[in-house]
UniProtKB/TrEMBL annotation:
The gene is atpF. Keywords: ATP synthesis, Cell membrane, CF(0), Coiled coil, Hydrogen ion transport, Ion transport, Membrane, Transmembrane, Transmembrane helix, Transport. F-type ATPases have 2 components, F(1) - the catalytic core - and F(0) - the membrane proton channel. F(1) has five subunits: alpha(3), beta(3), gamma(1), delta(1), epsilon(1). F(0) has three main subunits: a(1), b(2) and c(10-14). The alpha and beta chains form an alternating ring which encloses part of the gamma chain. F(1) is attached to F(0) by a central stalk formed by the gamma and epsilon chains, while a peripheral stalk is formed by the delta and b chains. It is a single-pass membrane protein. It comes from Rhodospira trueperi. Residues 77-153 form the Importin N-terminal domain. The chain crosses the membrane at residues 32-50. This is ATP synthase subunit b. F(1)F(0) ATP synthase produces ATP from ADP in the presence of a proton or sodium gradient. F-type ATPases consist of two structural domains, F(1) containing the extramembraneous catalytic core and F(0) containing the membrane proton channel, linked together by a central stalk and a peripheral stalk. During catalysis, ATP synthesis in the catalytic domain of F(1) is coupled via a rotary mechanism of the central stalk subunits to proton translocation. It is found in: Cell membrane; Endomembrane system. Pfam families: ATP-synt_B (PF00430). One of its GO terms (cellular component) is endomembrane system. Belongs to the ATPase B chain family. InterPro entries: ATP_synth_b/b'su_bac/chlpt (IPR002146), ATP_synthase_B_chain (IPR050059), Importin-beta_N (IPR001494). One of its GO terms (biological process) is intracellular protein transport.
Amino acid sequence: MFEALAAETAGHVAEHAGEHAAGGFFSHAESWVLVAFVIVIGFIAVKFGAPAVRALDARADGIRAKLDEARTLREEAQSLLAEYEQKHKDALRTADEIVEHAHNEAERLRKKALDDLEESIARRERQATERIAQAEAQAIREVRARMVDVAVAAAERLIAERLDDRAQATLVDAAIEELPRRLH
């Protein structure tokens, strides 16, 4: 089978070799189509190649410019992001400081209120002690006054019972004589 195929292929090669030898490459229509195609492609390349290359270069430059702009915008966005992240951190730090200050201030106010309360209690205790002392002094004065009144009443009764009218008159006269000396 391979031998038959080889013989047939050899026959075709010999036939084409004969044709090429007789008329050459340009004796076939396919050869002229290939030459015309190459000429048309060459003409198109010469006529439209430079503008096409320029258009492609312009498009590439436009794409490059857009990429550069996008890169610049990305860098600006990253810069803004970093700036806002720093501002966020600063704001959090400031908020923490404010909270810490509020806690410290609350603690200071609590201590001051406690101190004020203790001082107020001590002051009220002193006032209550003073009032008690005043009340005791007043009670002692009232008891003494009452004792004087009771003693005077008892003395009057004793004098009235034991002294007669003449002795009473002698005592009154002596008290009157002594009065100017006691007043001055």
